[in-house]
Predict the 3D structure of the following.
Amino acid sequence: MTPKMMRLVSAMALGSAVACGGGGNSASTPTSPTGSNIAPVTVPPNTVLATDNNQFNPTTLTVTKGTQVTFTFGTISHNVIFSAASGVPANIDVVANTSVTRTFSSVGSFGFDCTLHSGMHGTVVVN
Ligand SMILES: [Cu+2]
């Protein structure tokens, strides 16, 4: 390798190091761990995950009146059956691999269950 090439190679190495070094700010996203042995999962705002571990995450979501909440379903089928309450949104039939939104237009505490999996219960609190 000629000295000229050496300079070229080291210049390229330096260039790529600079290109990769920008920022140095590894994006860390807040997580919402639920159960004791569940890996932390990032849950977007105003979203309830119906997880493949047969849990709702978070189990209690607090929103303001008029918020549209997204229920996101993975590969395991679940439904969302709300307890009877004034202003409760419509139930969500058994689905998988999709997201369904419901608008909470009334103040209150709205419990819901997945009737396919015992103990799979969540609550949306609307203020
Ligand atoms: Cu379920």
User: Anything to note?
Assistant: The chain has one helix and nine strands.
